[in-house]
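ok trying this again, last paste got cut off
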Amino acid sequence: MVIDQAIHSVDLVNWLIGSEVESVSCSMANRGHKSVNVEDSAEGLITYKNGVKYGFYCMNNYGCDEPIEIRLFCEKGKAVLGYDDARIIYNDGTKEEFSQTVPTEEYEGGKDYWGFQHIRQIKEFYRACLGIEQLKMSGREALKTQKLICEIYRKGKESMKI
């Protein structure tokens, strides 16, 4: 579940924080999908070398599609980031908001709420292979997130109940 769904949020937060990981604490369980031998929920705390702490909770036992949000709690307020919108709420009560309409991609075989970013990234990869454009993310950047995901699994495996 972490590797196929939560990886996107972990990747974004890791990029936003921009610091090396100091430590990872995680627990995982399979509470609702007994026919599948992987976790369906995970929670943990990632501590970065710059002092930032990232607490996460992810699960795929919802009965319906729910939006993914990243909430950043800072000294002067908080930011709430959604798929195509963002809000900053300052401690003094003032707010800033942004939203955008994301153009959809046509593809067959998937539900609309699965999102269209996968199709965009695959097309970007093909264009890069053809020399038309450069990738927006390098392999080195992707490897940072992959190493973090591996550490989440290493720590989570110690507590996993399947």
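PB: full thing came through this time. Strands lie at 21-29, 41-48, 53-59, 70-74, 77-81, 85-90, 95-99.
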